[in-house]
């Protein structure tokens, strides 16, 4: 949620509840106006029953999966999530589904438990994009 709010408002808010939100945002890319709809799902809600997750996957055209570089568990669930997304989306179409893995909390390097190299290698092995960022910065 912090990363989504930072992207949309350019402000950092450190604490969020465990709520799910859908945001809409206009963005200009290469001179074209694009309307984004962002379905922000907290990590704790991602472990719900498969039908809710399947509904979100069918709704979306692309995916940004965020983990904390300070939380190994948030990183370790990514391969399963990505396989689930690819099976649901690419099984229906021959097109590659755009997926980006984002390691957040880069500013907390002293608490890091997931290296940048691990993130890059995971993204490479799963054919995803990769970035490390700090919503706070």
UniProtKB/TrEMBL annotation:
Matching SMART domains: RAB (SM00175), RAS (SM00173)
Single GO molecular function:
G protein activity
Q: What is its EC number?
A: 3.6.5.2
Q: Write out the entry's keywords from A to Z.
A: GTP-binding, Hydrolase, Nucleotide-binding
Q: Which domain of life is it from?
A: Eukaryota
Catalytic activity entry: GTP + H2O = GDP + phosphate + H(+)
**PROSITE patterns tied to this protein:** RAB (PS51419), RAS (PS51421)
Broadest EC class assigned to this enzyme? hydrolase
Which family is it part of? Belongs to the small GTPase superfamily. Ras family.
* Protein name, UniProt field: small monomeric GTPase
Q: What is the lineage of its organism?
A: Eukaryota, Metazoa, Chordata, Craniata, Vertebrata
